Amino acid sequence: MCGIIGYVGKKAAAPILLEALRRLQYRGYDSAGIAVLSDDGRLTVRKKVGKLDDGLARLVQDQPVTGHLGIGHTRWATHGPPSDENSHPHLDQSGKIAVVHNGVIENCDRLKERFLKAGHIFRSATDTEVLAHLIGDHYDRQPRANGQPASLTQAVCDALREVIGTYGIAVISSEHPGLIIGARRGSPLIIGIGDNENFLTSDSNAIVAHTRQVVFLNDYDVATVTAERFDVQNLGADTAKVQISRLEFASEEAERGAYSHFMLKEIFEQPRAVENALRGRIDFEAATARFGGLNMTVAELRSIERIVIGATGTSWHAALVGEYLIEQLAHLPVEVEFSHEFSTRNAPLQRDTVLLVLSQSGETADTLGALREAKRRGHRALSIINVVGSTIARESDGGIYMHAGPEIGVASTKAFVSTLTILSLLAVHLGRMRMLSAAQATEILRALEAAPAQLQSILAQDAAINKLALKYASADDFFFLGRGYTYPIALEGALKLKEISYIHAEGYSAAEMKHGPIALIDPKTPVVFVIPQDSMYEKTLANLAMIRARRGPIIALATEGDTQIQNVADDVFYLPKTLEPIYPILAAVPLQLLAYHIAVSRGCDVDKPRNLAKSVTVQ
Ligand code: F6R
Fold first, then answer.
1. 198-201 and 306-311: which strand pairing?
2. pTM (2 d.p.)
């Protein structure tokens, strides 16, 4: 989704802003822009629809901008279609104030009406331009002593008090050549602290090459940033809570290296992602897992009666696997909800229900909404998150970090497998407080420990999956089927394929096909069966026979040594043998590679698929 960068310091601002915008591209965007303030207070805006290198970067090359302070933005359209006019930054009525904004101003129509009546002229269809006018209006209304400029911080605070909605913003003014104002509510904003230079950004990936020292702003914080210092005030409290944190990851982790795409790099990083998720969390002596950040005593964990897992997209598929894991290993009732449905449908929750939210980014607005709703109702809310310091991580009562490293490809891969790993550990942890025997738990922990090497052996067969992909790449429709633990993997396989290759793909429980979707099976519709040798094997085999009888081409993901499957499938990819609850971790990977190679062969932009955003910060 949209990305924000702000810079103030001694260096030329434009190259720093453009480089940061390049690092924000992975989030998904349709246009980009910058506003730079020269040292003598000239405000210049450059903005362009389309890809950064073909659009904005070229424009800035042709029409350079100079100055040591500026703001930049990648836009993912919400109000108004992608166009040069709708791109950010937007100016106020006077043309002196420039604003970039992530989020949605819900009362923008009413505010716009007010300004139209006052004769303001709007050049775009965006809510952000209305916000710029609102800030400018408050700025102009301030009394000025002896020709002194008004306070930009005050104008921003006054304007935001009138705003309904969500925002992360950066604001500059030609009357304040050394100053950037940042503010957030519901949309992330971070101050990056440099040496005689400071940054504002919505995503630490944009500034990690410059600094690791950051302050994660909280909702209603307003930051006044110069090259030498920053001050933070909070619109809702007497004082703001300011804590300087250190970013963990190295900047090279956000580089593509020799891989042709970030997605491929991240698929290949999965053995390490699983190792990182397991590191320090297995206790073989007690046959259990341990976590540092759950912030719950053993007695509290034992008193949980029910877990609701909230998530969206790929994380929701991980949640479905979590349901199987926790129900089967800990005998605790689990319900999986889309975060957006959970926060709006007012589900009755018994007292000892805990909400567990899953989110790679830790910024998904729907999931943040679910977390806040559960907390508002007095329930404990835990999270499994990748991005350290993200809003959901900070607002959770307790949580577990994935430590998967930055995930840049829009389609989630390593975070998914990492979440499955942590859910397996969590199920063991909860199970050992209930009915899971030491022997059963040890078996699972050993299988988890073996998973990284097994994933390596799957990745070593990438060429075979590529061959398979080329064979089926021209299909218009795909089905992905599984049962039990691998049913959510079928859903995830279908999602991966549709989002990056734009092929229509559906995931179902293999058992559900006969209840309707089987009508769509024909010789042109490949069906991927995830059919390891687990407790569902025979039943899935029967479901497979129904597809075969209707001449659907069958690709099977089966277990090494399964000779029977070769007789009934057109193509087979073999997974190493593991325990039933661990197959999802292994089976996810060939499906990611299948989707990746199909998308590449169809010429799709796999890292930045059309219409998609990396972290969805609007509800
Ligand atoms: C799909 C994908 C999305 C995300 C979803 C939730 O590949 O990446 O479906 O999984 O938007 O995002 P997080 O996990 O950041 O909350």
1. unpaired
2. 0.83
